[in-house]
Batch of 2 targets.
Target 1
Amino acid sequence: MSKPLLEMQNVSVTFPSGAGRVAVVDEISFSLDEGEVLALVGESGCGKTMAALALMRLIPKPGRAEKTSRITFDGKDVMAASVDDMRALRGYDLSMIFQDPMTCLNPVVRVGDQVVEAIRLHESVSYGAARKRTIELFERVGIPDAEQRFSTYPHLLSGGLKQRVMISMAVATKPRLLIADEPTTALDVTVQAQILELLRELQRDLGTTILLITHDFAVVNELADRVAVMYAGKMVEKGTRYELLKMPRHPYTEGLLGAIPHAAQRGHELNEIEGVVPPPALWPAGCRFTNRCPKAFEPCEGTLPPRIETSGTGVAWCHALAKASGR
Amino acid sequence: MPWISNIAVLVLVALGFLGWRTIRRNRLWSEALRALWRRRRISLVIIAVYVVIALLDSIAWVGGTVSGDVSDAVAAFKPRSIIDRIIAPEAFKELSYSAPFAEAGFYDDAPLNHPGAHVLGTDILGQDVLYRALKGVRVALLIGGLTSLIVIPIALAFGVAAGYFGGRIDDVVFFVMSTLASVPSLLLLIALIMVLGIGTVQVCVALGVTGWVGFCRLSRGETLKLREADYVQAARALGVSHAGIILRHILPNLAHLIVITFALQFTGLVLAETILSYLGIGLDGSWGQMIDQARDELSRDPIVWWNLAAASCALFTLVLCVNLCADAMRDILDPRTRREEQ
Amino acid sequence: MFAYLVRRIAYGFVTVLGVLMLLFVLFFAIADPDDIARKAVGERASAEVYEQWKKNHGYDKPLIVNTDHGAAEFARYTDTLFFDHYRRMLTFDFGRSDADDSPIAGRILAGAVPSLSLTVPLFVIGLGVGVFFALLVAFFRDTYVDRSVLVLCMLAMSIASLIYIIGGQYLIGMLLRWFPISGFDPDPTVAYRFLALPVLIGVVSGFGADVRLYRTVFLEETNRDYVRTARAKGCGDIRVMTAHVLRNALIPILTNVVLAIPFLFTGALLLESFFGIPGLGSLTVEAIHGNDFSTLRTMVYIGALLFILGQILTDVSYTLADPRVRLR
Ligand SMILES: Nc1ncnc2c1ncn2[C@@H]1O[C@H](COP(=O)(O)OP(=O)(O)O)[C@@H](O)[C@H]1O
Ligand SMILES: [Mg+2]
């Protein structure tokens, strides 16, 4: 088997808080093969965005990725890359779509020019050529009247159209890896489906590798090959889509799956997880899920949960699972 | 009229005491105050010293013995403040310039009445410069503090009324505001003082008229926003009276604006007075006047610098401390910067 | 756009009428024309001279109602100080100075050039320096560069402008003798020598407040999401600042700046009078010292007029600079 396109090992992101620094992303690891779609799942505030930004090396100050983190993208050591190398990588081989298209486009620059900028930062093409490519891209991602839309300003576009602009900006240079951070969360339900459809088409046509961040298992079900579940900065379960959706092992994954009003689950009792993710400073020392977990017992609070190989390729980190499997 | 000033001191001390008690009872404000104390201890102490000096200089009465060359008859009619009585400027003076701590006159080398005692030297008339600088404290606080204390409630009343009730009231207030705001403030200030005449009350009134607009506009805008807030709408739906809503929901939410504006207005006014002093329409005994009188002394040979230095340092220290406190207060009270800091 | 402009100008005109009302109240109702005349001709002047002076300077009519005319006559209300005041100000007929009888309009025109030659460079350089340092500070935010510039600004803001001028004149003009201490010459090849010092002092005295203001604007913009998008695209730090942040931050800065343009004409009062530049600021200072109410009145009026014009310009430039603003 060839080397994976992306490898994240023991990636930690910390922010200063009170006395010391707290890790909002705590030693998570995962890898992505070429052409694969990995879904990173977890509730709001679990550190998904920070994990992705660590990969982009765009963590906002005063946060930072810890020295112990190892990130290898396409054979390159991202943590050690120079500022210029990173700049060449970002937006070229490594693109990102953000959660809120409303605020992520520059309000005083014409949308077409924002895509042109993305192209011209990395390829030495004339403005005219870049413009032509942008319009083609707009047509490709389903923006009607692409020619006119090129020179409108973001505030005149609907949320769905803005997200399409974001997507065309992200795929303009045919990136090796596309990070889609909750690309549909801020949109209306009907628009969500269209954007998902578009992402799937693009993935199929371009063969782009996608790191899909979401808290919605319906989205996972649509797109993902493999799934990684995060809770409060820690990885709690990994596996293929099939394994995770059909046989969730970690209580948190079970809870998340129970929380979506999915057609298949109609009639089942909706056992939504109570409460919300606490702020990072209040995360427990042992298993972070302890105080919301229905299966929590004595060792959960104090000690880190062990790594348990579940079926096939799946792994989970859970005391209760360890006890059930007799270890 | 010493009694006005004495009563003012009494009222201010009483107000200060009441304010202190209110703050102590309110958790949010006492916390903010404690945070301010933690971050700006030195500034607060310096401001407190200035305030105490100003208060001491405001308590005045007639009588007592006056030494020096002032006749007893004049002394019997002229009220003198505590500061006056401590320093006794009538006796504590020289004939002309003398440098700080000097043993002899600056230009004539004549022996001094009080050799080595004038910490900041003496001015052209032989008055002690430290004494003059101390006298300036009261004038500065009068300009900045008292004017703001009187103007801000008025501006608040108009601003809140306009924002809350809207309609005609808003139209009128807004028109008056935009009219006053269209006149460049220094020109308006000058025009007002020229028309009203030169004097403490007149200058304060002029400063007040030009100063209220900014705050009125601010409170109007903020009230407009608050009026639409959910909890205000809910209170109104529950039948809470207008007065109740304004007192309980609007004013408390404007409080942080009031505090910060007060501080900024204060420094603005004190600085503006120096310009007025230069134009010859400022207040008697202000630092601005001292600076204005001292400006020619720089071209003397050898130069006389202590007059200018004393007045500018006194002014600079006060303004800097208030600015620093205002800045810290804004950080403490503004939820946005608070988030940034975490 | 056209309808908006018309409405905006109409409101501006109403404000001008309001300002004239304010001036009337101040200079005719509160300041008694009789007093002004008495002061101007002196206590011992004859009644004749006194009346003649009042007539020459247009102070000889009743305030709002002229009872010399019948109740039905129009002139009962038009032949008054109130009406005259409005008519003359609106037609730019400013009359004569109360102090020396010279025509005010001519003096204002003569003062505009020296004023502008001081304030325009002051304004342009001040803006450039302010934006540059603010950008620098925003770029190095949360480092010691940022903190030390902020402390410097705070110190600079707390110094009275009078002290800047006195200190600057003494230090640079008298001790170092780089530039002449005061004076003016209309010939630009000579004038710059006279203007350099006041411009320098003006820029330094405005530095603190400007940099702090612009820094806040820049920092607010650098925290926005579109900046992260730009970085994710591969923009470098400098490009992010110039192509994205600056462009957005210029909108609030621009509105601030356009609003300041009218003040260029009224001149920098202190600077002009200290450095002997015969501009409108000096004119105003002379008017104060000479109890010249009519000149003062005119200066206030012109200042307000320019300010209102500036506001209209600001609103228009705002709608042009920010695509999000749609005209109502
Ligand atoms: N600028 C910041 N300063 C301090 N803490 C932050 C900052 N940004 C994010 N965090 C913390 O990091 C955690 C993870 O945030 P994020 O990655 O955005 O979560 P997610 O994308 O999963 O919703 C959150 O709990 C949040 O409190
Ligand atoms: Mg997120």
Target 2
Amino acid sequence: MKKLIAVRNLRLCTKDCLCLYVCPTGASDTENSVIDTTKCIGCGSCAGACPSGAISMVPLDYPPQQKKSEAVLAPAYALANAKARQEQAARQLAAAAEGDGLYRLLTAMARSVRLVNEDLLREAGYMLPQSGNAHALLQRLADEPPGPAFPTAAARSLLARLPNNDEP
Amino acid sequence: MRAICPICGYVYDDAAEGVPFASLPDSWSCPMCGAPKLMFEPEAAPAAPAAQPAAAPLADDDMQQLSAGALAALCSNLARGCEKQYKEEEAALFRQIADFYTAAAPAAEDPSLEGLAALFRADLDGGYPGLSAAAKAGGDRGTQRVCVWGEKVTNMLYALLARYQREGEAFLQDTQVWVCSVCGFVYIGGAPPELCPVCKVPAWKFDKIEGRRPA
Ligand code: SF4
Ligand code: SF4
Ligand SMILES: [Zn+2]
């Protein structure tokens, strides 16, 4: 079984086409520049040959999520809730702002706080979409949707698509 | 004297500049990252034996509960995790759930700039020192890194808000507001910095925030 597949970053690719010459299966030679995952055998030749660092070898399986201690999670969650309040306040203040400068500043702040919060929660046990934590959350949401507008189908679809790495 | 920018580490050296740091106007800001003069720290500050702030106590179960707004960030973070793995469809599904929670987050009551500044202040005074101490005690390097970045970004937001309250719209006239799409650092200037002073990504990772009526 192959463990890796090649993925080309179209933004970095300069179309020098060295990868075409080294690929043993022709997987990298496609009209839309997206490497054919069914043909790719994960040999890594193209990634090594690419002068632009445009090809990554992406693993098919990911490791279990690193365990986090309760003593870190409690203050991390409290901080995450504080960040959420800031984001909400910044968004409302931006919507009500009269000046264009204030509108831009507060819009930037709402976005900034969200990014900081994403980073915080990633480290608080939600790094991998394939983790047991992510699965447990999705399962809870699918079983007991938090409201009539909740996209239950999205949660179910994610449960079906993503493996649970922490399952024994 | 030498003064250091707490955000990007830029050093202002009186001897080299010819103008003493103390006599710079309050409106002066770091030439590298835009941090205001008031945030600078003297270089020789004796590293106070950090009085380890106690980690926030596990007061009650509420602390363990993530609010709707926090769940929105949790899910948009998982969407990014999928994007990094080139799983676009999964990313879109997580974004649907994130959008549900963003809309479900309860409105802030009487939000004000002062109130927002106080929320930033509370993180700087309590939230980050507490989390950072817990992470240090537990040898959690990832969370320590989150604290370093988050604290710098929050410091900057606090300073920018204070500056806007002092100077009003004039502060942002004829200039742009930029957000680092990786760490959230906010920069005011005609063009983004060459490297993000907090997370060191290049200028193209910065997003320009457009006004209501893009020119
Ligand atoms: S070698 Fe790299 S830069 Fe050249 S075409 Fe292939 S992916 Fe693009
Ligand atoms: S990893 Fe090997 S098989 Fe896959 S596209 Fe690159 S060269 Fe071809
Ligand atoms: Zn950054």
